[in-house]
Sequence to fold (216 residues):
Amino acid sequence: MSSAVMQFAAGIPDPREASLAQASAQALANKLASHPKSIAIRFAEDTREEIELPFAAARLLIDLLNEMAKGNAVSLIPTHAELTTQQAADLINVSRGFLVKLLDRKEIPHRKVGTHRRILFSDLKAYEERTRKARSKALDKLTEESQSLGMYD
Amino acid sequence: MAHTALIDANVLYSAPVRDLLIELAAAKLYRARWSPDIHLEWMKIARENTPTCPPKNGLSWRS
Fold:
């Protein structure tokens, strides 16, 4: 991704990192449940110094650790980030051509910077959620119809 | 980037296999694609092989 998208990417965790992530996510979640305001972390080498994290950041950290525990690579994209058509297409698993069609049909808002189109990450996510719901509804209907027609027998 | 797979009519025709493959695609494990022609084909066969299937049911192609 280009520098237009501020991105914090961690590579695919190795097994040791994954199991460490699982343990620390669990410990952090337990702590957060009993101290639901903010959380202070201490470093192993220097037990005197504490760093306090906002609650929301600690929650996010747990999500990140949980993904790492599953062996997933994680990257954070701020919701206000502006994406190129290629980046947006990659994020929702479609071709760039198809994404441009969605922009032309105004299914996803965009703005133009010179001749280039830019898409807000939050708008892209909203579209993805909309289609996810529609797809899930259609699949439920399809399963129901197939069942009543005996297509699973 | 996930792999893209073209799903042919015989795969869509089998309800259990279709369910599995579509759910895997929905989980973004790969990109499932099929054409309007493939979609019409499996529905045509489904209608022919299922006596109780109404001539035109809700399984219509959405562009």
Q: What stands out?
A: The mean pLDDT of chain B is 83. Helices of chain B lie at 9-13, 15-26, 36-49.
